[in-house]
TrEMBL record:
This is TldD/PmbA family protein. GO terms for biological process: proteolysis. It holds the Pfam family PmbA_TldD_2nd. InterPro entries: Metalloprtase-TldD/E_C (IPR045569), Metalloprtase-TldD/E_cen_dom (IPR045570), Metalloprtase-TldD/E_N (IPR002510), PmbA (IPR047657), TldD/PmbA_N (IPR035068), TldD/PmbA_sf (IPR036059). One of its GO terms (molecular function) is metallopeptidase activity. It comes from Vineibacter terrae.
Length: 434
C-alpha cells in the first residue's frame, strides 16, 4: 500500500493493519443468553501531498482493490485544504527497537472455558443471602494484531490478547431493589480473580446497598472507592491532552510546571508495563514510547502529545500518538495510574465525622474548560470514621483544580485496566441531598 501510494504521487504515506478476533459468552439465571464470535481485518492508509492529507480504509484486502484505493487516497489528498501540522515523523525520531511486553499468551479461549467462568461467578453471586435476581455474568477473550508501516522507514507490529469476566446481580424486592457488580481482566488467565470471588463480591455489594437513605446537603470530605477513583485520572488526561491545550479548551492550560496536586503525589503513564492492557511498544506514529511521571511531587511536568499537537505547541512529541484505521492519530495515554499512598482505607476515613464514601457515579457533569464538577453519586455515609449506612440520590460538586489539590490516595492500588487509582479522599466538597 505504501509503495502503491508513492507510485501514485504521494509525497509521504503510512498504512496501518488491524486484525482482531473476539469471543464472548454470557448467561443469566443459569441459562446461556449470548454467544458471539467475530473476526475482522481492516487496513487504513494515510497519504500526504505536501501539507495535505487524506485517509481511507478498507476491509477488502484483494490486491487490485487496495491498489485502486491507494490511487484514490492520493487524489483526495490533492483536493483537501492544507494542514500545516500534519505529516510523518522524521526518520531520526522513529523507534528502531522496542521491548517485548508479553502482551499475548498465545492461547485461545474456548466457549466451554468462558461458559464455566460465567456459571461459577453467577452461582456464587446468587448464593449470597439477599440476592433476588441477576443481570447475568459475561466472559470474553480477544486478540488483536497491529502492524504499521510508513514511507519514512518505520515498520513494526505487535499482538495483544486478553480475558475478562464480569457479574451483576440485584438484591431486595420491588422498588427497593439495588444492583451492583464486580469484574476482572488480564492478559493472562492467571491474572484474573477467581470467578467465585467475582460473583460473591458482586452479591455482597448489592446486598449492602439495600435501604439507602438520602442525607441533607452539606460540605464535607468525600472518599472515592477504588472502582470510581480512576475517573479523576480520566479528567486529568482530558485536561492535559495536546489537542485540548492547542485549542485552549483546558482548565489546566496555564499550569504546566506548576503544582496541581499535593506534594509527594505522583501520577505515572507507563507503556512498558508487562502484561498490562494499556501497554504498547511504539506509538501510532512509529515513535518510541517511554514511562512519564506526568505529575511528579504534585507538579504537572508534561502534556500528552502526538506529532500534530506537538507541532501546534512547538514542543517535542511525547510518544502518545494513538490511531485506528479510519482517522488521523491523536494523543492518548497508555497505562495511567496514581501511585498508592501510605494510609489504609480505614485510616483514610478514620477522622471523618461526617462524609460520603462513593461507590457509584452517575452522569458526566464535568466542564473541561473551567474544571467545574458535578456528578450524581451513591455509596455509604461515613459517620465517626466508619461506613454507617447506604445512601443514594446524592450529588457531589466542586472544581477539579481544588479537588486535585485536596486529594489524598490510600494504599490499595490494584491494576485492573489501562487507568488505575487507589481509593482517594478529597476534602471540602459540596454534597447535595435533601
Amino acid at each position: 500500500m505504501v509503495a502503491w501510494a508513492k507510485a501514485a504521487g504521494a509525497d509521504a504515506v503510512d498504512a496501518i493493519y488491524v486484525e482482531g478476533t473476539q469471543l464472548s459468552v454470557s448467561q443469566r439465571l443459569g441459562a446461556r443468553e449470548q454467544l458471539e464470535r467475530s473476526e475482522g481485518r481492516d487496513l487504513g492508509l494515510r497519504a500526504f501531498v505536501g501539507t495535505r492529507q487524506a485517509i481511507v480504509s478498507s476491509t477488502d484486502l484483494e490486491a487490485g482493490a487496495l491498489k485502486e484505493l491507494a490511487g484514490r487516497a492520493v487524489a483526495m489528498a490533492r483536493a483537501v485544504p492544507e494542514d500545516p501540522v500534519c505529516g510523518l515523523a522524521p526518520a531520526e525520531m522513529l523507534a528502531r527497537q522496542w521491548p517485548d511486553l508479553d502482551l499475548d499468551d498465545g492461547a485461545e479461549a474456548s466457549v466451554e472455558q468462558l461458559a464455566d467462568w460465567c456459571a461459577r461467578a453467577e452461582d456464587a453471586a446468587r448464593a449470597v443471602a439477599g440476592v433476588t435476581n441477576s443481570e447475568g455474568a459475561s466472559a470474553s477473550w480477544g486478540r488483536t494484531r497491529v502492524a504499521l508501516a510508513a514511507s519514512n522507514g518505520f515498520a513494526g507490529d505487535y499482538s495483544r490478547g486478553g480475558y475478562s469476566l464480569s457479574c451483576s446481580v440485584l438484591a431486595g424486592d420491588g422498588t427497593g431493589m439495588e444492583r451492583d457488580y464486580d469484574w476482572t481482566s488480564g492478559i493472562y488467565v492467571d491474572q484474573l480473580e477467581a470467578p467465585e470471588k467475582i460473583g460473591r463480591t458482586a452479591g455482597e455489594k448489592a446486598v449492602r446497598r439495600l435501604n439507602p437513605r438520602r442525607m441533607k446537603s452539606t460540605k464535607a470530605p468525600v472518599v472515592y472507592d477504588q472502582r470510581v477513583a480512576s475517573s479523576m485520572l480520566g479528567h486529568l488526561a482530558g485536561a492535559i491532552n495536546g489537542r485540548a491545550i492547542a485549542r485552549k479548551t483546558s482548565f489546566l492550560l496555564d499550569r504546566l510546571g506548576q503544582r496541581i496536586f499535593k506534594p509527594g503525589l505522583r501520577i505515572i503513564d507507563d507503556p512498558h508495563r508487562k502484561r498490562e492492557s494499556g501497554s504498547r511498544p511504539f506509538d501510532g506514529e512509529g515513535l518510541p514510547t517511554r514511562r512519564w511521571n506526568i505529575v511528579d511531587d504534585g507538579t504537572l511536568t508534561t502534556w500528552v502529545l502526538d506529532l500534530a499537537s506537538a507541532r501546534q505547541l512547538d514542543l517535542a512529541p511525547t510518544g502518545h500518538g494513538s490511531r485506528g484505521v479510519s482517522g488521523p492519530p491523536g494523543p492518548s495515554t497508555s497505562n495511567l495510574y496514581l501511585e498508592a499512598g501510605s494510609a489504609s482505607v480505614d485510616e483514610l476515613i478514620a477522622d471523618i465525622d461526617n462524609g460520603l464514601y462513593i461507590t457509584e457515579l452517575i452522569g458526566f457533569g464535568v466542564n473541561g474548560v473551567t474544571g467545574d464538577y458535578s456528578r450524581g453519586a451513591a455509596g455509604f455515609w461515613i459517620e465517626n470514621g466508619k461506613l454507617a449506612w447506604p445512601v443514594s440520590g446524592m450529588t457531589v460538586a466542586g472544581n477539579l483544580k481544588d479537588m486535585f489539590l485536596n486529594l489524598t490516595p490510600a494504599n490499595d492500588l490494584v491494576f485492573k485496566g489501562a487507568v488505575n487509582a487507589p481509593t482517594v479522599r478529597i476534602d471540602g466538597m459540596t454534597i447535595a441531598g435533601e
